Request: fold
Amino acid sequence: MDLAQNFTQIRKFITDQIKDSVAITTYQLKKDPQAYFTKLGINVRLEQYKDIILQEETRFELGGVDKQSFLLIYPTHLQQFIEDGEITIIGSETDALNEDGIDFGLFILIGFEKINEKEFNNLKHLSFVSNSIEGFMIRTIPRRFWCRITAQLYKNFSFEFLANAIHYLYRQEFGAIIKKMEILMIIEEPHLIEEFNDVTAKIQEDLKFKWKEKINEWKKRVDCDYDWECAACPYYDACVDIREVLEEREKIDE
Reply:
């Protein structure tokens, strides 16, 4: 199955939930997001809120150690498959939830025309969003997506808000390189999270292949013959320093 077919499968996944009477809501991106955030009384400013949220300060969690969760961010030049500004929530909104934590999946599609490797990799990291919503923090754990939300933020929090905030912050951070953007969330439906991971397997394989190519190219460049991946390498910090020196030398030679 090629990537075009995989996008078709994603659309079918959504329509199948409608046929099965799963709660599903579609929103359109707010035309004036800052006015929307102000009305909600939620502060959203790029890289302005970097506080750590402790367990005792947490009112609500998305994903985590004991929950099904995923985060998949896919930058692609296949813009024709992206419904720009569309937000799809599969599952219940926050006003219908009574739990302190839920299973949660987040899929972000980003369309571009032409970007370099550094921009492509930066688009896949959500840490700047964690640092830009007051009362919201993304925790980093292997193979899980985990967010903490304070009691103050939760008063007016919704998944519609979160999607709008992600859209807004991505545009603030990356500007014109983003041509289209679409967000899908799966709420409190662990079996659908598993199913969606199967549906998007081709996309995930494509991202992993690009990453492995990058790692192999880098290892050849610095004459590295270790079998382990960079993330587990005890010499990673020193290797990064070497890379930065090489990049600076390339700028001088240009």
In short: The radius of gyration is 19 Å.
